Amino acid sequence: MDQIDKKFYTKEDLQTVLNISEATINNWFRTGVIPNTWKKNSFTKHEFSDLINYLSSSTKLKGRANRSLADGNSTCYLGITTKERRNLLKKAIQNYQDLTIELEEGVFSLALAALRSAGLLAEEWFYKPKSKLDFFLISWIKEKQINIAKALKYFEDFYIPNLNDDFLGAFYQSVQSVAAKSQRGSFYTPASLLQDIHIPLNKKILDPCCGSGSILLRVLNPKHDSDQIFAWDIDDTALKICRINLTLFFNDPNISPHIELYDSVFANKTTLTKQTEQTKFDYIITNPPWGSKYSATQKRILLQKYPELGTCESYSIVLFNSLRKLAPNGYLVFFLPHSFLNVSSHANIRKYLAKKGLPMKVMLLGNSFQGVMSEAIRLEINNTKAYPAEIKVFRSHEQQPTVISNNTFRIKNFIIPATASNADLNLMNKIYSSKHLLLEDNAKFALGIVTGNNNQHLLPRPTSNSEAIYRGKDIDHFRFLNPAFYLEFKPDKYQQVAPLELYRQPKIVYRFIADKLVCALDKQGRLLLNSANLFIPTLDYPIETIVSLFNSKLYTYLYRKMYYSKKVLRNHLESLPLPFLNSKQHALLKEIHDNFYLYKDSPEKLNHAVYSFFNLTVQEIRLIEDL
Ligand SMILES: C[S@@+](CC[C@H](N)C(=O)[O-])C[C@H]1O[C@@H](n2cnc3c(N)ncnc32)[C@H](O)[C@@H]1O
Prior knowledge:
With 627 residues, this protein is α/β, with parallel strands linked by helices. Helix content is 41%, strand content 14%. The strands form five sheets. The chain has a nine-stranded mixed sheet with strand order 5-4-3-6-7-9-8-10-11. It has a four-stranded antiparallel sheet with strand order 13-20-17-18.
């Protein structure tokens, strides 16, 4: 009210004071958000003040403010490709925002508009319900206490042609806050990743994390039997959209798919009928939640419930549970982050898969999910023993797959080196089949110091009380560069410090963020910042040999092909082979190490020495050199 002071006020003044559009105001008048008593073009000062107070205390305005604060609404188009359709979606989102209604009301009203547009709503559906759809809508109204008279009006001008592109799901995704989506791990699958999946008729099909059913819309055929379709999720609103979507898809208000509120991670037995609980499915296809956030108690429950998995990661658990529901000869398709293939926390589910010995396919999808940083894969598993238990990796539809044998799959932590070619896989097999030791259980690892505030603690120049601290950047192959920072070392002042003796004894220091291996032997007890980590081998194997091997091109090649990572993790180093060498070979690597330490030597001598230890052929060396 401070902004304007006059005798009479108009709708424009309302816009200015509340910072909302003209369309919003008109919508509020039309739908009764602003009661009829205020339905005029000019207000006295007193009326205007009352109206502002009324709107400011209404949940509508609060909801609006919260929503715009929370999400920064980025429209999510999913499978909606045409400009016209996208504009329609934007219009629906705009209308919803202008109305400032609850999310559930918005979804319900838009669903009515979609059903009406498709001719699936009978004239008297509300007063004389007949179809399963009518009864479903009425129970939705009762459950959420929706005002039907208003709901019918909210999107009454909308004509939404039925294109089975999950228009409603796109709306729901777009208007939800990013926080809510990431809490549930709900980022929906782009339609383009599903185009080539065709499910034969007469199959029992399950999507255990179906969301609004967008995957089902893409892989089903209207000739499928809706009674054979099962769709589960923990998001009740998404499930309701899923039901509407399937009704639209089959163009039938009397379909009876099995849509259930069911938790595929915690697998609480009480929510499914006994019959559904025991059902085996011919096709299980889903994009499970990636990285759902669980409380400490929930994590404890999951670790107890799935001791064989040893992880609380939602997608590993959904995969594990789904495999148990897959019928003989059944087919499973999961969308997963690339890290599923090589991160050590998923080693147990990979081991479980390796032991099952089933044929699998992996398709590399890159960064194809909107709003998700991780690269994705499509994992397919055929529950049959009729084909060899190997993994075929496809980079694109055109390219021939590479084939990972069950043996390669077992190299270390059951990692699936999906970016390796067939030639790479042969080379890796050759290297791992020569006798070797590993750092696993044979080294102490520690992280560099996390100061908690580098600006405060790091000094650009030495002082009488300070000592140098080395970052990842300050480590080169075999040697340390001049430090850029100094620290007056007060361990109890920092956020995280390893036991001091680990910094102060001879150790191997390596760059943490790197797509290659870079390490150096430190005998001077240097301090490290957290972009540099360390390990201290405890096995009977010359430390200089390890530094030389890890600095060679062959070991960077192994790291990249196996892990496809930008961060050098402990388990990566623990899995690199330390070959059995004779004393002459160790001496050669020590000499190379010492020369490098003193002056930057040529790496050729090192690389060729390492190649010769593994008897690599010219072609194999070329693979490494061409990396
Ligand atoms: C990545 S979204 C996939 C949605 C949809 N299948 C698609 O790809 O378009 C993940 C879905 O899993 C659901 N979800 C999360 N945790 C779940 C659980 N424990 N059990 C079942 N569904 C879950 C979310 O609500 C969300 O709808």
